[in-house]
Known about the structure:
CATH topology of the domain at 202-302: Nuclear Transport Factor 2, Chain: A
Number of helices: 11
Structural class: alpha+beta
Shape: elongated
Largest sheet: 7 strands, mixed
Domain RNA polymerase sigma factor 70 region 4 type: 141-187
Domain RNA polymerase sigma-70 region: 17-82
CATH architecture of the domain at 202-302: Roll
GO molecular function, one term: sigma factor activity
Keywords: DNA-binding, Sigma factor, Transcription, Transcription regulation
GO biological process, one term: DNA-templated transcription initiation
Amino acid sequence: MSTRTTDERGFRELSDTYRHELHLHCYRLLGSFADAEDVVQETLLAAWRGLEGFEGRSSLRTWLYRIATNRCLNALRDAGRRRPPEPVPPFDPPEPSRRGEVTWLQPYPDELLERVADSEPGPEARYTAREAIELAFVTGLQLLPPRQAAALVLRDVLCFPAGEVAAMLGTTETAVKGILQRARASLAKHRDGAGHRPSPRERELTKRFADAFTAGDLDGVLSLLTDDAWLAMPPAPHEYHGLEAIASFLRVTMAVPVPEGFTMTPARANNQPAFHCRHGATPAGLMVLTLDGDRIRAVTRFLDQK
């Protein structure tokens, strides 16, 4: 079917082919599942309205990525972009190790990753499909200048040719090379580099964590963490680094009575093990674990996720 068609059904069939991968692309750049949904809708509407002007000098996929990328850049430049309100805990938390910057970070369900067309990374890929969706990678992107993040994802994850990346960003190939050099150096500083590699011990490790956490067994939880582990709770900015800091926080939270009981149901998000948490029948967030060998290197509890 010609991409020049003005038939709405035909365009929907074409655009739906790329909807899921566009959503994942926007999520990487924005760090927010909800914001990515909004931008994809804007992208497809803009593409439909501009279809008559599409001259076919690039593929439909490249054209859609160009629109989506620039919509993401507009959203990131928007001074009115709202950070989620900081939640008020029902207890007095200890002083955090630091206050995180990326409080808008949301998880990405693994079941949606399965809808993205699976393709082998090209020769320019610097990150595997698994690594490029993990929380550490997505968080690192949020700390880069928007154009650096966009160039890095387009070139090093999606493997678009340098010339197409330059056209998408409205610049030159020479400029893209400079942008990429800075982005790669900055991302290496932001990320801790351990990366999760699945192993047969993952299910046992995560079950032991859930059993200890739901039982209020602080020592049991701490025994499963690396010495330099992190605990974060978006949209709350509080982050705790190291066993002593994490213990001080968990000691307070575990002392808060939960009459209806606390349960954790296995799930997956961002290609990482996760748990749906509940206080009785009430959703109490999504907890995502970052593993490092036979220990847990980071615990990220998304407080506003069901």
